[in-house]
Amino acid sequence: MKRILLALLLCAFAVPAFSQAKQKVVFQVSDADPAKWNLALNNARNVQQDLGKNNVQIEIVAYGPGLGMLKADSKVADRLAQALDDDVGLLACENTMTSTHVSRDQMYGGIAYVKAGVTHIMKRQQEGWAYIRP
After folding, report:
1. What is the DSSP letter of 76?
2. Which pTM was predicted?
3. Of 7, 27, 84, 114, which is least surrounded by CB within 10 A?
4. Cα–Cα distance, 111 to 116 (Å, whole number)
């Protein structure tokens, strides 16, 4: 009987601890379309509003044609500033940068870099992150 009560007690404390685990989501943006970028940024904001900003970790990974939207002269630059202020990780693919001859000084300030965008997304999925491609 004591073992059953102990097991129930442990379960009672384990469930709230598990439900409070930080959610993690990675968004893929590989299109040069500002509308797609705005959709991804809106999705990120909506996730933060729904789950609570401190309860979720969000990354938006740009590669291929989508990389241009993380450049300093991006059509969505004002939205990038807000995303960074809201702790949304904006990550640029260095493979795409190399193949398109784009340097870091051409990129929007405050973003981060990954060697390969596709590989980064794969690793995140293996780590249990949710994956969304708007």
Report:
1. T
2. 0.84
3. 7
4. 15
